Queue: 4 jobs
Job 1
Amino acid sequence: MEAGIVGLPNVGKSTLFNALTAAGALAANYPFATIEPNVGVVPIPDPRLAQVNSKIETEKVIPASLRLVDIAGIVKGASEGEGLGNKFLSHIREVDAIVQVVRCFESAPGGEDITHVDGTVDPVRDIETIATELVLADLQTVENALPKAVRAAKGKDPDDVARLGVLQKLEPVLSEGRPARSLELDDPAEQKALRLMTLITSKRVLYIANVDDSDPNGEGPLASAVREYASKEGMEMVPICARIESELAELDDADKREMLADMGMDEPALDKLARGAYHLLGLQSYYTAGPKEIRAWTIRQGTKAPQAAGVIHTDFEKGFIRAECYAVDDLLELGSEKAIKDAGRLRVEGKDYTMQDGDVCHFLFNR
């Protein structure tokens, strides 16, 4: 799973990235400081891995991971070449979801002035500024693609016809300032064509309200405005104080727990971000467990057993025979896989089985 972190300059985007990935010194307070994106891979916190490991001995435990791409700050006019112009577009198009960091603090700790590019702090305005730039970028992409699509569709190839149909439907939607994801398509061929276009505004957005350390749970008016906006859009919002997270990143586990308690927080930002991203993208985890490794695998909700096996290796999907599954709760209750089997709780599932969140699986396949 990959998420691109975007935001206006000086909203704390790179500070948050560095904290989440323990990437070292914080980025300087300069607009357009990040020309090429920084990339970090962070483990997704998952208490069920430790629960499985408490009953099954193994050499290593491997969590699922989130790949974070810190993309250059976007400003008003970026789609027309302002700031870094369209240099960020190729990086955004490749991610699964967009994480937009929104400034919800007036000044930095100690009263340090961090200049907002628009002079005042208004998180909803900032969200709409970036939304407009991304829509305009997609509109430019669609307008450039239309002439070629018209020519290609003359050959009557179904894929080319579907692509043209989607482009023609997208142009007025984007021209009205609405994102590509707002376009409703019933035709499976057109739905596929839209996915293959990898338009920026077809991606879902997780809004990160970068709050002041006096409001770590995002209960103030600025963060509340972001929460309300995200709710109306059907998206997710997570309040995070990037400054607190940068301090937490330097502490050991004991000191980290103490600081979280002192701040009235129940978990660090990465937990919130991972949970928000999973929910936003409709993801879930299943596990494999054995003496060599216990590992979490990320799949979309509704994934069938053969496709879930294919996440491990394509040969598992091609030669899929069956899956032997049980729940983590069964393991905690009964204590071992043998006890689960003896109690009749080991399920044998075929090709039509829809994977459940928290399944522990062994896949049998033909080589």
Job 2
Amino acid sequence: MRCHNLWSIGVLALFASGTVRSAEPGFPQFDMQEIESSLKVGYAVLLEDINGDQKKDIVIVDTNRVVWYENPTWKRRTILGPKTKPDNVCITALDITGDGLPELVLGAAWKPFDTQTPGTLHWLERGATLDDEWTMHPLPCDEPTVHRVRAIDLDGDGKPEIVHMPLMGREATKAGNWMNGRPVRVMALAVPADPRKPEHWKPQVVIDNLHVMHNFAPAPRSARGTELLAAAYEGVFSIRRTPTGWNAVKIGTGNQDTPQSNRGASEIEPGRLAGNKPVIATIEPWHGHQVVVYTPPTGSETLWNRHLLDEQLRWGHGVEYADLDGDGGDELIVGVRDDPNPARGDKHTERRGVRLYRATDGTGQKWERQILENGGVAVEDLAVADLNGDGKPDIVAVGRATGNARIYWNRGK
């Protein structure tokens, strides 16, 4: 395992009249549009075609509501009011009823340090019109601290399953640094023939041997079939199907500098550089201050090579990859949730917001940075998609302390 230190850092973006312009020649230019300023906590954002017009709409999970913004007017409509146990925390989309339009799966009852009381899962069925509130259908859930949910085709049959992951295992405690108690159980639910009957849903355990699992993502499908990438206290893992079930294979160390405190990794996302070269990005340690990229091992090594891109941040939250400049390789997009805190030893001055990273060597070992947003949004989550059909991926970020949602329109170089 090789570790490389911080590489070349770009200069700040320019802000004027709601416009964000890149000051680095290697990065695209962006225009900023704020579409919401009244969120309590924008826990999650999802870009999905809600109304079937072939345009990505914006879905936001707030503390006690779920709302969507219709493309291109960004008119806000309510999907669900305060009907779940607070807080709502995560969401995914898949076609459950078979009508060709997405339903939503919502995780709620979020209490991050209550490792005894189960969270909740519901799937949401749309009303007769776009303005009607959606109907809640309960899903079986016996896991505390439900934290992330995704729709992933685990068995390769073309039909995604609902996969959800708690943050902590049952009965874990602060005194044990959340490593005692039971491990986290990653669960899957296949969509049954009659999804409106709760008893037809049958939860299955995917893995149950890791601790403090903050996030996961599907890896590009390989000869091994579907794989999941997961960030945990123990490090970075590939979760793979074997003849006897799923197995978590360690591929990255994470940050283990303080084993009795925050450790390992939290956010995780796969990407591809030019030439289809795989990379994996993480935030380290858990809720940490480092942006890290892993590149594949060479020779007989089993762990991926760890590269430290940036540690001038407090609490990275939200990681995505996208080919922002159309050169065939992905750029890395990272959200920063908190401002620097000198009382805790922070010496950097860069604020909460959105940062971009671009590989300059084609191998993922050298990168440059662009600060796209410096202070305007305390990023809890972000997502990337082409919202206006111009072929360029746009960025949507939702804020926690700032309570806002912003679109960063990609205008190219």
Job 3
Amino acid sequence: MITQTFDEVFTFESIYRAHLRGRLAKRDKIPLVNFEASLLENIYKLYSQLKDGTFKFSKYHHFVVYEPKKREIQTLRYCDRVVQHVICDDVLQPYFGKRAILDNAVCQIGKGSHFALKRFENMLRSHVRKNGVTGYFLKCDILKYFPSIPHDRLKQIFCSQFEDEKLKNLIAQVIDSYCTKIEFLEKYGYDCLTPDPEHTGRGIPIGNQTSQVFGMFYLNKVDRLVKEKLRVKVYSRYMDDFVLVHTDKEFLRYALKEIGAAVESLGLKFNSKTMICPLKNGVTYLGFRYFFTPSGKLIKTVKKKTKCRVRWRTKLLKKAYLEGLITSERVRQSLSAFHGHLKHARSYKLRREVFLKLKAYAEADGVIQKYK
């Protein structure tokens, strides 16, 4: 149980530290500039509202992103995000992060996509050395994970761990502050959980920091099922995308049935990407594709969609620089990011292609980017 009290969590100092964390890489954003223009006054106002119980989360601002695919993002005003920093960094992450399995790699300090990939690669190599390339893999993906999470089950999992009623009510307020529209739920076959169509009882906003912790731990029941009951050794999960490897296809069919029942009990369901395939056909996971040579050597390449996305971003960066929207330093940073991500796979030709297209723009103002 979380024994911290509301007054212990929300002090003037903790709110100020949360602001320092929240402003990283956002110093030029207008909401942050306005907040820092009267910093002490705004922090004290926020502190006072939390203490006297008048604090309420504001309405969400909505916008759409198209990378890696079309998604609607929901964000709160800056002071609300500061409160969420306190909740996540000082309460939720330390408690629920310790209770997640090692191979749940999302939204935790010291973990991430490359941590998950490295662990998965090591487990795959160990599996093939022992059993050869004759096994199968089960690839699972939840249908519209964030927009479909039921509020009642989410509150049952998280709020039940708090002893302090004020903290418990604040977490419930965060969860109930957003609901997915009924038209969206009907489109994907999810039921509205309340009589009020304006408050469907489903969905958490993608832009919230708390949503990352909720999404990380909500499928902990599935993690425990796979590792403790089914005892699958090769298993990795990154948010709602997870993969299992086993020598027996019938066992994976049984595992799919068991996992499907657990997912259904959480108010969710699988999408069409969920499938069982031979390991020799190759496994796609987190933007990379793994396959084996006849000798059992593991080869890691970049997924086709990832290649297309990298080329699209390259054209976008070039256009933005020529129109004066970004500097050569920004182009250089993107080149470094591309290289840092793609170097983990066999992608020399793609990295060189991107470098040659952007090299001149990265060096235009004297910024030197050496390709390795």
Job 4
Amino acid sequence: MNALELKNVSKAYRDFQLGDISFVLPSGCIMGLIGENGAGKSTTIKLILDMVRRDSGEISILGKDNQNDFCRVKEEIGVVLDEAYFPESITAREVNAIMKHTYHHWDESQYFDYLRRFSLPDKKSFKEFSRGMKMKLAIAVALSHHARLLILDEPTSGLDPIVRDEIVDLFYEFTREESHSILISSHIVSDLEKLCDYIAFLHRGKLLFCEEKDRLLEQYGILRCSKSEFQSIPSGAVRGFRDSGYGIEALVERQKIPFGLAVDTPGIEDIIVFMAKQF
């Protein structure tokens, strides 16, 4: 069973349209959702969680329709949005008392373990938390009720590199169980490149690709060449380029370029930056 399935999902606003989005997140995998501000990442997550109603298409979460059967699976979903929403006067200890009556499978012992691991005070009011502390509290809650699917919108935003690395390790631990999956959006491409099995790239409301990370890195390369060499390359092999005035740097499909040209391995950020130049 797939953790998530989106088929031809669309949502139109007055000044923005998310169009015909389709992708599948297999169980046991991590998918990174990448895109510039306003690309549609948060809208996609809100559609999955039925926080806004889709105009068309189908969304399935853990085998259930997200509109008709969402109540049957919401216990099995851990959610962290780009802002942590708790009452300002509440403490982390009081969060535990509330969550015990919210989730049937709330694990109090695990929750307090995460508070200690994140060095979060349990008696300090939420309004006194830094942004990083607030995000860590939201992550602790998401991981403490035995969810099978984590849906995370910018969960490492506001965290320093050391804590971000710790959080990435936590997500690795979570998906060691084959029934656990993660959909994570982030502007920090390096985190996603380390963490994810699949990369989905949204640009201006369109899904430009959704592909296995390793296959992307095998399929594409960075070619640095002279302008005359560039003119000999089939146009169908080029997925984006920049002209420095001294030469050409291009994202190319390895199998379509002439033999003998040296091609470097790209990073995920290289791929998305060059592809965005085409649109």
